[in-house]
Design goal:
It is a single chain. The protein has two domains: about 290 residues, Na+/H+ antiporter like fold (Up-down Bundle), CATH 1.20.1530; about 150 residues, NAD(P)-binding Rossmann-like Domain (Rossmann fold, 3-Layer(aba) Sandwich). The longest helix is centred in the middle third of the chain and has 32 residues. Helix 1 packs across helix 2, helix 11 packs across helix 12 and helix 14 crosses helix 17. The chain contains 25 helices and six strands. Strands 3-2-1-4-5-6 form a six-stranded parallel sheet, with helices on both faces. It has about 550 residues and is mostly helical.
């Protein structure tokens, strides 16, 4: 059987299993692991090309961690706050400590127990964001706290990625540690200098072409990963650092949106390979151990987090809902265990054990997060021990943009400057890197992005936005924008722009509240000038002077 046929059959099986997972409302990650388990057990021939699956898996992991690094913007790190740092570090330390002793009690050796305990401590950023996003709770207090400590966990992951080569070294000594430290520090300094002084200068050139931006970011992420691997560090650590080095670019959101589908495809191969490596015959014997470890994650982790948040003065419902977001192990946990297996530290049985824990906890946490409101009503009377008398939630604030504007051109420029005069909070999305750079310097909240990129639109938090304005004359893109916004915010006022009468009718039929037609507004304005000034040269000279000043104030690129 050719590799093409093998791969096609595997993707077909993965799609079939994924549809079943979607039907029972489970994360597709579980379906991908089951795909590998089914294929490896019953259709071994279609996973015969292990080398290809391994390569795709490594690419998927690298892109996944690159995107994690891309979201570690300094502004986000500053916004972690005490609660995110305390819960992030506190939960990881407590869970890994308890997990270590449980693993020893289950008969694992010291090194495997360390790996397993660390794997139990991390929660899935992808799954949590998906579930709370589906509930519309991204903007809630517990949602923001969850995102904060998940980012803290990602920072801890970076440190672990750098430590693994030292643990794996056969000749561990003061000299080797010093050499590794100097090499790592040199790479980080070099990456910092490049990210601060070279990449920003290239950004406008690269971002001027969507295709160039796409291929550059993939080349950058994989290239830096390979560089770190050459110097003895893990591919994963290089990918994280590569992402962090681009985290301050105005194009970071566009990069993330473009690479997300690529990540999703390649990471599927990782989970399929992980499932294929599970030994179906030994699963029954692993169930008792998996249930014991899963209990720590599904029950212990929420209790640990609720205790920490209660001590910090948060209400019991916020604490419980936040606690449920850590009731599963993450994709990083599985990557970490797979890396331990690749380094020879872990047996296939331990990989199967942690993968089984992943299946159980991801399955269980999906229902805990999705039905947290109903569960709270059942448990409310018993949760008083996690709440202090003086809570601090009332002091928590969250910034929402009242207006989101797509396009900073002639029409958009006039709009956002008027919004600025009236102190109306607004976010600008524009695809011209020159506009983004100049308006950022002026102090406007602006992000690089393309209205045609549906992933970008979905990544924006538009649930609380009052008015959404598109000054882009593209009816298809505007209709996509309308449909995406209506899913999360049915009450937002939607305004679009077009120069064609038939497109204006189409946009009104779609449901837009108002359609800007520049040529029509221009002719109306010209008519009003004639009505006001008639044959007065002084009047037209005054308008000419005003118009020239306005044109000169616009930053053309």
């Amino acid at each position: 059987m050719s590799h093409f046929v093998e791969f096609s059959l595997l993707i077909t099986l993965a799609a079939s299993v994924s549809m079943f997972m979607k039907l029972i409302k489970q994360p597709l990650m579980i379906g991908h692991i089951f795909t590998g388990l089914i294929a490896g057990t019953f259709f071994a021939s279609i996973v015969g090309s292990v080398e290809i699956l391994s390569l795709f898996s490594e690419i998927g992991i690298a892109i996944l961690l690159f995107l994690v690094g891309l979201h570690l913007h300094p502004k986000n790190i500053k916004q972690f706050g005490t609660i995110s740092i305390v819960t992030g570090f506190g939960q990881v330390i407590i869970t890994s400590t308890i997990g270590f002793f449980i693993a020893l009690w289950l008969g694992l050796g010291t090194l495997p127990a360390i790996y397993v305990s660390i794997a139990l401590a991390f929660s899935s950023t992808i799954i949590v964001l998906k579930l709370i996003g589906d509930k519309g709770d991204i903007d809630s207090l517990y949602g923001r706290i969850s995102i904060g400590f998940l980012l803290v966990q990602d920072l801890i992951a970076i440190l672990l990625m750098f430590m693994l080569p030292l643990v794996a070294s056969d000749s561990l000594s003061v000299g080797s540690i010093t050499t590794m430290f100097i090499q790592g520090l040199s790479l980080l300094v070099a990456m910092y200098l490049i990210s601060q002084h070279i990449i920003p200068r290239l950004n406008n050139f690269i971002a001027s072409s969507r295709e160039l931006l796409f291929i550059f970011t993939i080349a950058w992420g994989l290239g830096i990963s390979a560089l770190f691997y050459f110097f003895g560090f893990s591919i994963e650590s290089g990918a994280l650092v590569a992402g962090i080095s681009l985290a301050t670019l105005p194009t970071r959101r566009e990069i993330s949106a473009r690479l997300t589908p690529v990540r999703d495809f390649f990471i599927i191969m990782f989970f399929i390979l992980l499932g294929a490596q599970m030994e179906f015959g030994s699963i029954a014997s692993l169930i008792p151990s998996a249930l014991a470890l899963s209990a720590l994650v599904l029950i212990g982790n929420p209790i640990i987090l609720m205790s920490i948040m209660g001590a910090l003065g948060y209400k019991k419902k916020t604490s419980m809902q936040t606690g449920f977001t850590v009731a599963q192990i993450s994709e990083f946990s599985l990557i970490f265990i797979a890396l331990g297996y690749k380094l020879g530290h872990l047996s296939a049985e331990v990989v199967s054990l942690v993968t089984l824990v992943g299946l159980i906890t991801i399955f269980g946490s999906t229902y805990l997060i999705s039905y947290s409101d109903q569960i709270y009503k059942l448990l409310e009377r018993y949760l008083g021990i996690f709440e202090r008398k003086n809570t601090k939630e009332a002091s928590e604030e969250n910034k929402n943009y009242e207006v989101v504007l797509f396009g900073a051109g002639h029409v958009g420029n006039k709009i956002f400057r008027e919004l600025n005069k009236q102190n109306i909070s607004h976010l600008i999305i524009d695809h011209n890197p020159g506009n983004v750079q100049s308006l950022e310097k002026e102090g406007f909240d602006i992000q690089y992005g393309d209205l045609t990129n549906i992933e970008l639109i979905e990544s924006l938090n538009l649930s609380g936005t009052k008015i959404i304005i598109s000054t882009i004359d593209d009816p298809d893109s505007n209709i996509l924008l309308f449909e995406s916004v209506r899913k999360v915010n049915p009450d937002a006022i939607m305004i679009a722009t077009t120069n064609a009468d038939e497109n204006a009718l189409l946009l009104y039929d779609t449901g837009f509240d108002y359609v800007i037609m520049p040529h029509l507004l221009g002719s109306q304005h010209a008519a009003s000038l004639f009505e006001q000034y008639k044959f007065s040269r002084d009047g037209y000279d005054m308008m000419r002077h005003h118009h020239l000043n306005e044109l000169r104030s616009i930053k053309f690129s």
